[in-house]
Amino acid sequence: MTDCHEFLQALIVEEKVSSGLRIVDLRLNVAATGNDIVDGVNLTIEKGRVLGLVGESGSGKTTVGLAVLSHARRGVEVAHGQIFCGDTEVLGLDAEAKRKIRGGLVSYVPQDPASSLNPALRIGLQLIEVLEAHDFGGSAEARKARIKEMMVEVLLPTDDEYLERYPHQLSGGQQQRVGLAMAFACRPSVLVLDEPTTGLDVSTQEHVLKTIRQLTRDHGVAALYITHDLAVIADLADDVAVMYSGRIVEQGTVAEIFKNPGHPYTRHLVAAAPDIVGKKAIIGLAGRAQSPGKRPVGCAFAPRCELAEDACRVEFPALVSISTRHNVACIKANQTPSRVVASAKSESTQKIGEPVVELVGVSAGYSGNQVVHDVSLTIRKGECLALVGESGSGKTTVSRAIGGLHREWTGSIRLNGHELKTMARQRAIEDRLAIQYVFQNPYGSLNPRRTVGDSIVRPLLISGKSKDTARRSVLEVLDKVSLPSSYANKYPDQLSGGERQRIAIARALVSEPEVLVCDEVTSALDVLVQAAIVDLLGDLRRQLGLAMLFVTHNLPLVRSIADQVAVMCEGRIVEVGPSESVIGNPQQQYTQSLISATPSIERSMR
Amino acid sequence: MKASILKFVIKRIALGLLTLFIVSLLIFAVTQAFPADPAEAMLGREATPEALAALRADFGLDKPIVVQYTNWLFGILRGDLGTSYATSISVSEYIGPRVSASFFLLLIAAVGSIPLSIVIGANAALRRDRKFDTASSLVSLILAAMPEFVVGTILTIIFSTTIWQLLPAVTYLEVGAPPWSDISGLILPVLTLLIAVTPYVSRVMRAAMIEVLESDYVEMARLKGMDERTVLWRHAMPNAVGPAFQVIALNLAYLAGGVIIVERLFNFPGIGSALADAVRSRDLPVIQFLALIIAGVYVLTNLLADIGTVLVTPRLRTRLK
Amino acid sequence: MSEVKQSADQFVDERPPSLMRQGFKLRRTQIGAVLALLLMSVALVGPFLAPFGSTEYVDLPNTLNVPGTVFGTDYFGQDILSRFLFGGRTILILAFLATSIGITLGTTLGLTAAYLRGRADEVIMRALDVVLSFPQVLLSLLVISMFGPSNVLIIFTVGLSTTPRIARIIRGAAIGVVERDFISAAEALGESRRRVVFAEVLPNVTSSLLVEMNLRLTYSVGLIASLAFLGFTPEPNAANWGLMIQENRVALTEQPWGVILPAVALALMTIGTGLIGDGLSRVSAGIDRGGKGE
Asked: Mind listing the domains of chain B with CATH numbers?
């Protein structure tokens, strides 16, 4: 016994010295109620290694990240646990000591660089004050030199004029690099990055990820990379920890996790993640994770798990090792892993019909500035055309013009052969109902003051249907999007993001349109919900013979939903064709660079 | 000063002058809607037609309206403000000494209220939901809801007549006497004006500070290891000042109207009480000029606020083209 | 932090109660409601309870202990209590009517400006700016100086000067709403402009509207009382709280009740409505947003 104990002690001491970051049995509560936000979190990251903390929204990953800096947002308290950055335990420090480690021993890179930089201060000042606060360098000249050093490392200009700029005078990518420079300035030992590339273009993301990889390796930093994007993890991280409902459900090296996922949740995540190489189908999962206080006893994933049995609901499973450095919190961990399969579907060969929407020479602008140049497209009945591009490419403008939501455009947009007027209000009622639009933001696309049923029924009342027919149609369409009819009386703020998007789709379907324009409809959704919505859209398209325009910046997603793809850059169509050939064998340089910059799980695993 | 900023300032000033011009038109138009004949009103019903005609010629009332307006406007710009109907002395003689008295009152109230409200508001935000915050917010609310003549009256009751007799209930100033010659008489009017304005500005300051203190960039500053002092003064304050500017100006401008009532209440010999008297006696030239001044102060403060907000917010400043 | 992604999956299972219900849970709103209702009842019902007529001569002026009266006589020998009971009605009714005008006009203009944006917005707001260049007291005085202080005129000027202040606030709230996708969805369906503004936008600015309504009522009461204080009431002899303060001020040291009663009544009424408004605004914004909104 004692030998074992001494042995373990020695192991701990050894770990302590070489570890960059060590989180021990961390539990964080909602201060007002005592409900746990995260519990039983144990993580170790060695110097120079990146650990990806993966989870969907509400999993508690950001809360864990902030705790590493000994910071908690309003209403959050530390219940118990320890966090070691190097040899320093950070949770027990007093206020002044906490301040000293932040930015010095451990740094934070936030998600939204635009809002994290102070709009009233020049970036030079915001960079130098970190050095001053930690008394780095010892003299003003040394600090100035260090700033220049950092700017070089993050590939930003080093001249004084640049440092005089205000944050809003920088692009998103540049702002994020300033954030990185600030984080690395004082040579921290630990780095927490909270979804730092969300919202950045794929090409900018590639640069930023490269910079992060380089800086962490060069400076021997232990990095905690928080994200929901599995492809980025596959590309950047060495180890992975998966969180669900505030608990760690799986940990291991990147290779292990992706090649051999042990926990059902991880398997679902991997099955739902779109990839630009390899598999095409993505599989979603119904249900949602519960918020603190509402979590079920036992395994939090049990309600959604196809392998769940009574034993799972007794208590949260302990981590079981299924391989070297691979632990899974599931009582079925050691059983033969099952791959997640899609429910058998009758894959009727899709009949692609005649062109329904045709654009010829469409140009559009905003207040005189032209953003779309001479675009021509065809969308056929039963077919899904994906319109892909980075922000500013003009794809949303084109889709809004089709929907009659954009004022300044010229050229010709035809529906079944006849020309459409510029704005929806000018169009005939049949045309308005034939083209339906689904918006990106599930929060904003439904009137919060109306019940769901009222919002859905509007198009029918406008086209003159009687109240009874309309009501019946509402119930039918709710069924089509797999929502119970009781939802008709609910208000939007009672529903989750995924449910709201289903309502938005239902509203679009109720007038039996021919064309569905989907504008980034899954960009604000978590990966499992996204897959479910994509699945739904695919089913609807086949059942109803819809012509669909799917606007997105997410290139991997295109393979899972679209037959044809058009790539846009700076207002022009760069390449058009069947999605498999455009993505598998791109002809244009722009498309090629876009594809190579997109991270892929499959590519990283090869 | 950069050329773009200068251009912006000039544009704004031009806009302010335009507004003032329209305001003067409005004032003139309203006062010309007077149903009865001003000459008759001054001389009475029994006046002979010749006397009436002579009076009309004297005051230029027989000329067409447009000419009357331009005469009036240019007169003012020249410094000739016309003659008061009621007292028959020139408006400038009548009003002149009062203007400085009123401005003195306004100045003290303004200069007092700005730092006071910033301090109260910022403190309330920092000690959010604790004793100072809840107490000051309740007191602010109560003081702000009451009309200022009620506040002034209650102050009088408390400090002058009924509960204590510390301060005089009215000022004993002669027209034209320097206001500081009756300090004790000034206390209640100034206090009333302060109470009229400070609560609102401090509440807005509090709201602005809270929003700033909860912002992402302030959280980031703390996560960088900045000490609380730096976070407050370098990161928070500059961002809270912008929105506070607008409201400060709005409320200072409000004082320009509030002064009318407060002067009446305390018998203070300023333009406010003169205006009230002029309205009662339908003394058109005085009404017109005083209305113009008060509206002018209003427009000026709003103008300064607009310019100030842009100068203080880098995002707006750099967008000027 | 405030990413759409984060909020897209924050779900609320129970529908939060309406603004009014939530607002009235706060202690201060309840107290405010009690105060306001109490004083408004006094103002409206008072005339039926007064022992003497409002202009009835009772005894020598400024006498404290007059048999048959509670507070004695005022500057003109009239019963102070009776005059007090008569004195709130005019102020209250005028204030309500003026505020209603301001709310109706102001909301319509604010919503229209926010929805139409561009040129129309500029024109509307510039026109309102001209009215805004006058402090409310000044505008009322100007108009009264010409036409005399009739009830209709007072309602009209107070309502007119309230309009742009409300319009500004509503426009500010509506601009945030107008950018949201459900408005675009309504436009894509081809809904008429009027329908979009009143059926889609308006319901989403009600919390700002309620708060403003309250604020403006408080202020209108104060303004109309102030005008009365300066001597501008339709009937110079009728009882009016604001006028009473002016009339009885001179004799404050001998007969304080003629001033204290109306002053306290006005104070409590405005504090009452002010508390209600504050409670509502706390609940709707989560953060205090003050501002007399001149």
From this structure: 101-270 (1.10.3720.10)
